[in-house]
Amino acid sequence: MTQPIFLIGPRGCGKTTVGLELARLCQSQFVDTDHWLQTHAGKSIAEIVEQEGWESFRARETATLEAVTAASGIIATGGGIILSPYNRQFMREKGIVIYLSAPVPVLVERLEASPEEGQRPTLTGKPIGEEVSAVLAERDALYREAAHHIVDASLTPAQVVQHIVRVLDLACAS
Ligand SMILES: Nc1ncnc2c1ncn2[C@@H]1O[C@H](COP(=O)(O)OP(=O)(O)OP(=O)(O)O)[C@@H](O)[C@H]1O
Ligand SMILES: O=C(O)C1=C[C@@H](O)[C@@H](O)[C@H](O)C1
Ligand SMILES: [Mg+2]
């Protein structure tokens, strides 16, 4: 692997889960922008948003993306990283961008089972089903614009990893 692989997609599509598994399989570095950002800020995303607002979180997110992007490795991003045109272009130029795409009911089921409110404060104030649907409708085109490849993320994590290995022709043990 000679370029970083950026995993993008909505909350619950499995960027962190699949990224960890892919990195383990390919013996690569793994970094998660949400986790890195929270560790370096010393507070959760919910606390950042409450104290500083979404704009400040988005600025921190771009700085994180720049800081974690190295010559190679797997980078799991936050669900809203594609909102910034700068971030979209940065990822496309620096590496390979994969959109983990899943339908709304799949995302809602996963997020209801594991809400992680500290990392996922509400984006709209709406109930989860309405929020996921509204946010995906707004962002799907941006995920597609940023992506070099789109992978079906409604499969099991192991299957999603295998699809990525095949699509990118990665030389990893299966
Ligand atoms: N392919 C999958 N099949 C079943 N469950 C999954 C799959 N991928 C992830 N999950 C589960 O869904 C939940 C959310 O996954 P994960 O945290 O990896 O999503 P994410 O895309 O990183 O979300 P965020 O944008 O909030 O960081 C977790 O509980 C995880 O175990
Ligand atoms: O979809 C989003 O806008 C977000 C997704 C999470 O990964 C976090 O990056 C944060 O909660 C924002
Ligand atoms: Mg994640």
From TrEMBL:
<dbReference type="GO" id="GO:0000287">
    <property type="term" value="F:magnesium ion binding"/>
</dbReference>
<comment type="subunit">
    <text>Monomer.</text>
</comment>
<feature type="binding site">
    <location>
        <begin position="12"/>
        <end position="17"/>
    </location>
    <ligand>
        <name>ATP</name>
    </ligand>
</feature>
<keyword id="KW-0479">Metal-binding</keyword>
<comment type="pathway">
    <text>Metabolic intermediate biosynthesis; chorismate biosynthesis; chorismate from D-erythrose 4-phosphate and phosphoenolpyruvate: step 5/7.</text>
</comment>
<keyword id="KW-0460">Magnesium</keyword>
<feature type="binding site">
    <location>
        <position position="58"/>
    </location>
    <ligand>
        <name>substrate</name>
    </ligand>
</feature>
<dbReference type="InterPro" id="IPR023000">
    <property type="entry name" value="Shikimate_kinase_CS"/>
</dbReference>
<comment type="function">
    <text>Catalyzes the specific phosphorylation of the 3-hydroxyl group of shikimic acid using ATP as a cosubstrate.</text>
</comment>
<dbReference type="GO" id="GO:0005524">
    <property type="term" value="F:ATP binding"/>
</dbReference>
<feature type="binding site">
    <location>
        <position position="34"/>
    </location>
    <ligand>
        <name>substrate</name>
    </ligand>
</feature>
<dbReference type="GO" id="GO:0009423">
    <property type="term" value="P:chorismate biosynthetic process"/>
</dbReference>
<comment type="similarity">
    <text>Belongs to the shikimate kinase family.</text>
</comment>
<dbReference type="InterPro" id="IPR000623">
    <property type="entry name" value="Shikimate_kinase/TSH1"/>
</dbReference>
<keyword id="KW-0057">Aromatic amino acid biosynthesis</keyword>
<dbReference type="InterPro" id="IPR027417">
    <property type="entry name" value="P-loop_NTPase"/>
</dbReference>
<dbReference type="Pfam" id="PF01202">
    <property type="entry name" value="SKI"/>
</dbReference>
<protein>
    <recommendedName>
        <fullName>Shikimate kinase 1</fullName>
        <ecNumber>2.7.1.71</ecNumber>
    </recommendedName>
</protein>
<keyword id="KW-0067">ATP-binding</keyword>
<keyword id="KW-0547">Nucleotide-binding</keyword>
<feature type="binding site">
    <location>
        <position position="16"/>
    </location>
    <ligand>
        <name>Mg(2+)</name>
    </ligand>
</feature>
<dbReference type="GO" id="GO:0008652">
    <property type="term" value="P:amino acid biosynthetic process"/>
</dbReference>
<dbReference type="GO" id="GO:0005829">
    <property type="term" value="C:cytosol"/>
</dbReference>
<dbReference type="InterPro" id="IPR031322">
    <property type="entry name" value="Shikimate/glucono_kinase"/>
</dbReference>
<keyword id="KW-0028">Amino-acid biosynthesis</keyword>
<keyword id="KW-0808">Transferase</keyword>
<feature type="binding site">
    <location>
        <position position="139"/>
    </location>
    <ligand>
        <name>substrate</name>
    </ligand>
</feature>
<feature type="binding site">
    <location>
        <position position="120"/>
    </location>
    <ligand>
        <name>ATP</name>
    </ligand>
</feature>
<dbReference type="GO" id="GO:0009073">
    <property type="term" value="P:aromatic amino acid family biosynthetic process"/>
</dbReference>
<dbReference type="GO" id="GO:0004765">
    <property type="term" value="F:shikimate kinase activity"/>
</dbReference>
<keyword id="KW-0418">Kinase</keyword>
<keyword id="KW-0963">Cytoplasm</keyword>
<feature type="binding site">
    <location>
        <position position="79"/>
    </location>
    <ligand>
        <name>substrate</name>
    </ligand>
</feature>
